[in-house]
Amino acid sequence: MKFDLKEAMEMMQKMQSELARIQEEARGRIYEAQSGAGFVTAKVNGNLEIVDISISDEAFALGDKSLLEDLISAAVNQALEKAKQEGSSNIQKLLGPLSSYFNFNL
Predict the structure, then answer these.
(1) What are phi and psi of 16, to 5 degrees?
(2) How far is Cα 24 from Cα 54, in angstroms, rounded to an integer?
(3) 15-28 pLDDT per residue, tens
(4) CA–CA separation, 26 and 20 (whole Å)
């Protein structure tokens, strides 16, 4: 099979364009997670930026700063993990069979 540089370059440009589209979509996606039976809710976008943290009145009423800090960390980490997993999945779909040659740990 002969290697066609022009065809390879066109494929790379198409993949680059598709990657830009996926990244733009990710900016608008929101991933949400809760911890402590809903005491804390964290939302992040596809760029792995925190966009909102909600803390219930009940969580404040507990008066346990350390517990609240742990609940916030857990909710944020879970939301980030959801975003990372979907981002990685989208990249693998884009690359198709080539994805086995790359390790995408976003």
Answers:
(1) -65, -40
(2) 26
(3) 888 888 888 888 88
(4) 10
Q: Which pTM was predicted? A: 0.74
pLDDT of 98 reads: 64
- Tell me, what DSSP letter sits at residue 36? T
Q: d(Cα 85, Cα 71) in Å, to the nearest integer?
A: 21
Domain boundaries, the chain: 29-93
**Distance, CA of 50 to CA of 32 (rounded, Å):** 10
Q: Domain 29-93 sits in which CATH superfamily?
A: Nucleoid-associated protein YbaB-like domain (3.30.1310.10)
CB 41 within 8 A of CB 58: no
Distance between CA atoms of residues 73 and 101, nearest Å: 33
Tens of pLDDT, residues 52-67: 999 999 998 999 999 9
Q: Measured between alpha carbons, how far is residue 93 from residues 22, 28, 30, 35, 96 in Å?
A: 11, 19, 20, 31, 5
